[in-house]
């Protein structure tokens, strides 16, 4: 097994061949992060016959902890990676070993991985639960080799996926009865879903800001989202959709797609015409568009950590489950810590500073909605 560095121009071509290709591992995502100070190191592992068996786009950021003073540190992050073409244990162990070498060579304080390595499917304790032995083995290996469960889980550990194989009648049959009813109700009520024109992206952001204000979560400034959406749309890896009722925009979403998978990452809505169930028809059309792009899986981006009514995602989960989705549980984010003292500062002190900036940003969002 050999590891090699890959340039940005050839990266996406290799990525598309991976069964677990992810838009957060694309060259476009590295370009997004480059605008806020991240660089990318792209690695490919090949078998003896030259076949690519693993990939990892490592994002690295170097900065001072406190702007103009304090030690300079470098951290690494592999969002939704590394990617393995199979669950072969020897490949996984070699990849982790080589990543540790890279972390040392780059003088990283820590390296975070966040791979889509399944530990099981279905809700734990239910009849749908199916454990995955390879994922359990990966957890044991990480713990044994100095990795630790990250206190900063950036991506969702669990998600809900919809399988796009079969006919649309098959999709409907997997849905809950109420979901099927609401999709048809939206269509009967005159809700229309269409793709967003480039100059309409600011409208989506305003709806997104309204959604954030209503549901109590923090979002970034408008320029960030417009940049991400436009970049991926122009690259042919995203579609922005909007639902209109009586000619008025009432809801929207941004659909990303890479390889065999599509993702529902950003969803937004207003308080208008909610009784016409526009979000249900939006999801239906997103599934159809994903299938047109050749996707086999539609990832609904997130499920609860604990499957009970107290979890903050329980209501959203019921909506996703109603679409006929299957729960997928992954290992979550793990950190390889090389400098414990600096790691402690990064994990304990910086979050307090970020809480202040988040409070300021929450007030800004409220002003944008007014």
Rounded mean pLDDT is 92
Q: Would you report the number of β strands?
A: 17
Instruction: Tell me the major beta sheet.
Output: 9 strands, mixed
Order of helices and strands: EHHEEEEHEEEHEEHHEHHEEEHEHEEH
Low-pLDDT ranges: 364-370
Radius of gyration: 21 Å
Structure report:
With 370 residues, this protein is an alpha+beta fold. 40% of the residues lie in helices and 28% in strands. It has a 9-stranded mixed sheet with strand order 8-7-16-10-15-14-13-12-11, with helices on both faces. Strands 1, 2, 3, 4, 5, 6, 9 and 17 form an 8-stranded mixed sheet that branches. Strand 13 (248-258) and strand 14 (261-269) form a beta hairpin. Helix 3 packs parallel to helix 4 and helix 6 (177-188) crosses helix 9. The longest helix is centred in the last third of the chain and has 30 residues, at 340-369.
Could you list some keywords that capture this structure?
370 residues, alpha+beta, eight-stranded mixed beta sheet, 17 strands, globular, disordered C terminus
Q: How is the topology of this model organized?
A:
Blueprint (H helix, E strand, L loop, with lengths): L1 E4 L2 H9 L10 H8 L3 E9 L5 E15 L2 E10 L4 E2 L4 H17 L4 E4 L4 E4 L8 E2 L1 H12 L2 E3 L8 E6 L4 H7 L2 H12 L3 E4 L5 H15 L6 H13 L3 E8 L2 E11 L2 E9 L8 H15 L4 E3 L14 H9 L3 E5 L3 E4 L2 H30 L1
Parallel strand pairs: 4-6, 14-15
Antiparallel strand pairs: 1-2, 2-3, 3-4, 3-5, 6-17, 7-8, 7-16, 9-17, 10-15, 10-16, 11-12, 12-13, 13-14
Q: What's the short story on this structure?
A:
With 370 residues, this protein is an alpha+beta fold. Helix content is 40%, strand content 28%.
